[in-house]
Amino acid sequence: MTEAVRIENVHFAYTPAKPILSIPSLVLPTGLRTFLHGPSGSGKTTLLSLISGVLTPQQGSVQVLGQELTRLSSGKRDTLRGASIGYIFQTFNLIPYLTVAENIAIPCRLHPERRARIAGNLHEEVARIARRLDLHAHLDAPVTRLSTGQQQRVAIARAVIGSPPLIIADEPTSSLDTDRRDDFLNLLDEVLQGATLLFVSHDLSLASHFDQTLSLRTLNEAAQ
Ligand SMILES: Nc1ncnc2c1ncn2[C@@H]1O[C@H](COP(=O)(O)OP(=O)(O)OP(=O)(O)O)[C@@H](O)[C@H]1O
């Protein structure tokens, strides 16, 4: 499969009077790191929700990892998302009453396909990823006791465990200063293992870290 994501003639509106997205074409080649930028409110999170199958468009085609999402039931879309998409949220969405190790393991506990891609013991895989992200000293700590930068690394670990082929990151660096932002992007690169990455941000200065850069303003006819 040469394309991880292909969107064609997609139209989406939350209410009929206000179209948010009208995208003739958008392609994410397999294994490439794509940077998508657009100003606040331009529809970046909405687009990610269409690609991850949380929302469905009123018109058009959304193909993800060889599946046409608009033809799948919501249950099948949930399964594809859980098995094949690692998601890094702007606010991390970690579970506050669980430890660091428990948070990292969640996708494998919830989705057998993610667990099945790990050859050995889950506990050891959590520890291996935690070591690479310099979190191993904190594995048994409640996640709320970690700094913001450490919580961000937990969010990376949870997204990549069980090797989902597509990783989506929604403005995960917006609260970081420049040095920590570069550290975050370098760490994400190190643990991607060939996955396709879609990273969205309003901050165009991040573009040099990626293989291709797309502008939502240019792609989206509803914004023109
Ligand atoms: N659930 C919703 N119901 C109605 N309108 C919504 C909903 N979610 C978002 N919108 C509207 O859709 C537009 C696009 O929002 P979206 O969150 O996708 O933009 P964004 O580019 O991700 O913004 P930001 O960078 O600020 O996170 C905005 O005008 C927003 O108010």
UniProtKB/TrEMBL annotation:
<dbReference type="GO" id="GO:0005886">
    <property type="term" value="C:plasma membrane"/>
</dbReference>
<dbReference type="GO" id="GO:0016887">
    <property type="term" value="F:ATP hydrolysis activity"/>
</dbReference>
<dbReference type="GO" id="GO:0022857">
    <property type="term" value="F:transmembrane transporter activity"/>
</dbReference>
<dbReference type="GO" id="GO:0005524">
    <property type="term" value="F:ATP binding"/>
</dbReference>
<feature type="domain" description="ABC transporter">
    <location>
        <begin position="5"/>
        <end position="222"/>
    </location>
</feature>
<dbReference type="InterPro" id="IPR015854">
    <property type="entry name" value="ABC_transpr_LolD-like"/>
</dbReference>
<dbReference type="Pfam" id="PF00005">
    <property type="entry name" value="ABC_tran"/>
</dbReference>
<dbReference type="InterPro" id="IPR027417">
    <property type="entry name" value="P-loop_NTPase"/>
</dbReference>
<protein>
    <submittedName>
        <fullName>Putative ABC transport system ATP-binding protein</fullName>
    </submittedName>
</protein>
<keyword id="KW-0813">Transport</keyword>
<dbReference type="InterPro" id="IPR017911">
    <property type="entry name" value="MacB-like_ATP-bd"/>
</dbReference>
<dbReference type="InterPro" id="IPR003593">
    <property type="entry name" value="AAA+_ATPase"/>
</dbReference>
<keyword id="KW-0547">Nucleotide-binding</keyword>
<dbReference type="InterPro" id="IPR003439">
    <property type="entry name" value="ABC_transporter-like_ATP-bd"/>
</dbReference>
<keyword id="KW-0067">ATP-binding</keyword>
